[in-house]
Structure formats: C-alpha cells, structure tokens
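Please, structure for the following, as tokens.
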Amino acid sequence: MKSLSIKRIAAIAAGAALVGSAFAAAVDTDTTNLANYKFFSNAQPDVQIVVGKIAAASDGIAAANIAAMIGNLAYTSTKVAITGTDLVKATSGNETVTGGTAVIDVTVPGVSPTSAYQVKSYIGLDSSNRDSVDSYGETVRNASSSWNGDLSASALGTTGVEPTVPLKITGDKTALLQYNGQTYYKVVTPKSLNIKEEQKIFLFGKTYYYATDDVVEAKTVKVGYEVTFTDPLPYCLETTKTDALCAESDKTTKNHVQIKFLGGTWTVMDMSYSASTAKSTITLGKETAYSPIMKLQDTLTAENGVKVTLTDISTPTGTSYLPYASFKIVDAAGSEDTLTIQQGSSTEKFGVVISVEYVFGGITQTNYARVAVYSSRLELTSDTMLPTTYGYWTPNIYNTTTTGGGQAITKIFLYDTTTDYNLKTGESVALISGMPGYKITFTNTDLTDSDYDPLTFSLVEDQTLKTDLFGDIAVDVLKVTSGKATAFRPTINGSAISGNNIFYIGLGNSTSNWSTCKFFTKPSSSSLTYGNTTADMPYYYSSSEAANIQCNQTAQNITIRVPEYTVDNAGYSASVNDANVNETWLLYDQSIRKLVSTTGSATISTTAPWGYDTPANVEDKTVTPRGSILNGYTSTSAQIKYATKVAHALYTMTGGAAAAAANVASYTMAPGDSKDIGGGYKVALKSVSATGAGGACTVTGLDNLAANPANVVATAKLNTKASPLVVTDDAATSSKLIVVGGPVVNTVADTVLGGKDKIAAGQSMVKVVGDKVVVAGYTAADTTAAAEALIDWLNQNRDALQR
C-alpha cells in the first residue's frame, strides 16, 4: 500500500482553489434590500461578520475585508465650529492690529425686515395722523381729495414744511432707505466734497371693504419719493466757480459721480439749469458695465447679454474738435451693429445706452476711452411729467447757489397726482413704471382662519324653556352659539354665570309680543335663569377681551347689537356707543317672527344711537373695520365670523426688482460684530482687513476661514476586542449578521438558507434574509467573489447607507 503525502494533498487543494478562483461565478447581489438594510446605529457598526469554524482561510480573509469596510463606514457628518478668530492679529514690528471693518451682503430665504418694510393699516380708519406712531399703531392715512394741494403746500417743500398727512418712511425706519447701515449715502467725488444724501418715501392710502369683489382692498394709494442732498449736489465740483467758468474736467457730469435713486445706484449723465424758466434737468443712468480705461478690442458685457467692443479711436474732427470712439455691438441673440460716438455723447442700441465719457487719442498703444453702459436712462426736468410709458410721475428739483455762484441741487421730489391706484391683494405701485426702483405692494390682512370665532344666531319658534323663575315657558328665541367653550359669562339677578358657549334671547311668541327681550342662560343647575336686557351679555372672544352684546326693543322690533373694537386694545370690553367701537346689528320683527333687512342681508352701523332700529344696510360677506365677516344672513339665521383680534391691512415696500419678500441687505461691521437681521437669522463678522496702530499693515488669510459652518466626517472609535466585528459561527452574539460562507462550512448560513443544498454549483450571492446578509458561494472562490461584490456595493453607496 502506498502512503498518502499530506503535503501533496495540500498542494492539490491549493491548486483547486486557484482554479476555482479563476472561474468564480457571477454574483447575484440583492441591491434593493441592501439599500434598506441598516448596517449602523449611532455611528457604530450594528452587525457582526460571522465565518464558519471549518471554512477555508479565504472565507476568513473575506470576512476580515468586509469588517474593515464596515468599520471604515462607521461615521457621522458633523458641523465644524470656527474658533480662535479672536486670537488672530497682524503686527508691524511690535504693533498690534486695532481696527478694521468689512462690508457684508447677506442673503436669506423668505422675507427679511432688512430688505422689505411692512406698514400696517386699520380697515376703514382714516382719521388719525399717520406721520408717526400714534396710540393706535403706525398705519396708512386716508388720501384726501386735496392730494395735489397737500403736495404743493407740504410734500413738495414750497413752504419749507415737511408733509404731515402721509406716512413718512425714512432711513431710520427701514434698511431699504439706508446704505451700509447708515441713514445717509456719502456721494463720492474727486474733490472730496461732503455731500450726504437721504431718501424718503411718503405713502398715502386707505383700506376698505370693497363690496363689488367682497374683499378688502387698498384704495386711492399714492406714493411720493424724495432725495435730499446735504451739502447740495453741485453742477461744478469746483464750488468756488460759476457754472460758466467751470472747467470741463470739473463738471459733475464728467467725473462719473453716482447717487442713490429709487433704491439703486445711478450715474449722473447730464445736469443743466435754465435761468429763464428757473427749471433744472438731471439725467441719470442705471449702470450695468463700466470701464475707466477701455482699450482697443476690450469688451463690456451688459446684464441683458449685449457685448460692446471698442474697435477704433479717432483723432478730433469737425468744428467741435471732439474725438470719437467706434464700437461693435452684439446682442444676446447674435445680432450685430456698429456705432461711432463722440466724447461726451451717448447712443441707445439693443436695449442699452452706451456713453463715451472721455476719449484719449494718443498713439495706438495708449489709446483708450472711458465708457459706461446703462440699462436705463432717466431724464428728470422740474415740473415736467415723465413720458406716460413710465406712468404719470412728475419730478420737482430744488436748487441753491454755491459759494462761487454756481447751481447745486438740494432736493428731488417725485410724485404722481394723476393716478389713484386701487390695489387688490398682491398688486403693487411702482415708482416709475418699467424702471428699477421701489414698489409698494398690498398683501391683504394679517388674520388667519384661527383668528375667527363663528358667532351664530339661529331663530327657533315655539321653544319650550325650563326656567328657574317661571317654570316652562313657550317662546320664540334666538339661539346664540360661540366656538369658545366659555364665551358667555353674564351676571344675572346677582348670580355670576361661570361660562357657556350658548345663550338664548327671548323674542315673545305667536300670541303676544314681549315688552322687553330677555337673555336666558344655563347656570350649574338644569333650569335656565333670565335677565332683562338692562344687563349686557359679556362675550369673551379671547381670554382677556370681551364684547358686551345688547338687546333693545321698540314696539314690535327687537335689535341685537354686537359691538367690536376697531383698534388694538388689551383687556378691554367693547360696549355699544363706546369710542372706537363698531356695531353689527340684527333686526327681528315680532309681527312676522323673522329676522329682517331691507336688502335681505346683515347690517352695520358705526354711529347709530341706542334703540335705533333702521341702520344702514350692507351686503352679506361684508368685512367690518375689525376684520369680522358677515358670513351669512337669512330670515331665520345669521353668522358673524368674529375677529378675535383687530385686523391690520398689510403693505410691503421692497425694491422694484424683487417680490414683496426681498431678501438682501448690506452691513458695515467690525470684527466680533453680529447683527440680528430678522426672521431668526443672524450674521457675524469673523474676518477683516485691518491697519496696525503704529504702521501700515494688513491682516491676510482670514478670508480663508469660512463664516458659515461646514460639514465634516467624524469616524467612530471601535474596540474590536470588547465588541469583535468578526466571529465564528459558534460565537455569534448579534441577531444582525453578515454571514460569510455557504451552508456546508457555516452553520448560521445552513440555518438561514434552510439546508446545505441551498447553493447550487456555480452560484454566488449577496442576499438579505430578514436581519441577516448572506455572502456565500458554491466554492470558496465563489464566496470570495460575493464578499468583493458586497464591498464594492458598500463603497459605491457609502453616502446613501442607512445609518
């Protein structure tokens, strides 16, 4: 007998393994269930990898590689906080940085009070001075019929008096009229003049219920806009000279001077003053591209995509001796044209204005031009209405004389006396139609569905009431119901009623009229108690405020009056005939036993005296000055959607290019400063360029620190001794397992798959079975291929794994 060589058997087995690995089966990967399998919990692996005790060594290697991948993927995404910026400084020698600021533009989603200004108005209230915050809150005043007169006498400044009738919106009220957080803008000039500019908006209007549309609308809205200059804006920057003696290089129009107008930056293109008419003209351009030194073949690109390329510069020709520049103009669609423009002139083409401010006609290498491209050009002449394409806006320009006898502008006022703007929800008034600038939008009221209580009146004939004083009585009643559980809290015959959401108004019956109507309400006992109408019925529509409902009878007519405060109050009870109280009336005619109205609808009166039973009629769906809604009126029922707080009509002022939710603001901030910009957002300055106190130096590198938090990956700390990732099939402690190896060599796989014959020849799988992932194949090579397939899948889907 020949003996077997153990070494020979091992060599044959190894060779078989190599042959098997060369022909490993294609892996069937259960990608759908793998995507829903949770491998991790709290940044820790939530699985064990189990390998059979009798498995081939390659199974153990496969299990180890899977465990390494699982451990590598055990991480969380964590926000990084920037710290230590307060320790950064710049020095020059031994000098320490002590100052520095930065201009920050902040963009936030939604409405930001830094970039949108909201005005609140009462519905129908137009008698209070809205120039400042009064006792009823800041609101929009009614525009009187003497709008033009008001402007001439006040708003236009001819009497030197600021207007007091409209709401005046200034830079200290809203960032929309500010510049870098300041209420004024410093006009920059080459002469370093101290010109400060301020903007104001004057808003007129009234908010009323409009019966035609059954909605609250803004009526007769008018807007005035004012720019003031202190010191004034001169025609000649050398203010010691007259305009006639002003050098060409000192003219404001030749120095690219920019001002704030309608919320944007505009360049002064031209200025003139007519002594004969005493009228001034100023031409402004909304700049979209600019080059102070534009050389041949340089290109400027406007916001609308128009490209302006300088192609030639000539020597001076003609009697004007002015040089000119030639351009190739190409619009966004590819259409092309050429233009030649003299120095100091401008031409419009393809929706932009090209202005040649200066031309230097030196030798070819040094030729250049100063060129500006404008998206809009606006010419304002005092007391002269703009073209109607811009609306019906008229500017007034006010001048003064400089120390040298020249002209200077102190104020520009823009107003529209022709148009009464009636605005529905979402509609706007733009200052100068078609031009970038401010706009006023009416955005309806601030009441939501939860701000109403359904106060319902239902007529019930021949109702039998059980009373504590009269026993059972047959009577017609109005059953009054509130959505508030303890709305009605009367004191009747000396007894305080704790509160119900129902009470009854006795109205007489079919055989007799009552001389007085009576209130009935249910105390703690089963019977009703009553009181004459000399007692009010307190109706608590909120926890601290009430309306005292009253009933009065004249002959056969019964009047129920529901008062409401029309201005903000706290802890008060509205009573009939009080100041600032509106009343809703319901009329009942005992002779026909019906609720009545000449129009078949509910009625309102703000001035009707006690006992007056024929107030002015209004239609169903009417909105009251409080914001309550008459929500249905018939001969047998009525409902008032009673506003539990006073409605405020909302007007929003924004930049004209933005929706009523503009969201960009600029700030000038020092290191360590933070700003609450509204809406729950804050901005903090972390980086700055600063100057050393003892010498010139600049802090650098701080701009590399991200002001916003960034996400980083934090890996888990694993202790595989205490919590091993790889275990044998007889030591698995977790219910969630990655099972490596087939049922022949791994008892867990045998159990999960249901037998040793569940993997066929040539089969290789990554399969999710309950809370187990089986990684196995018919041969050891097939198992290795399955493990590699799982590792590949984990790597490719690392950012989408269930954690």
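The helical segments are 6-22, 31-35, 57-72, 147-155, 747-753, 780-796. Residues 85-116+661-708 form one domain.
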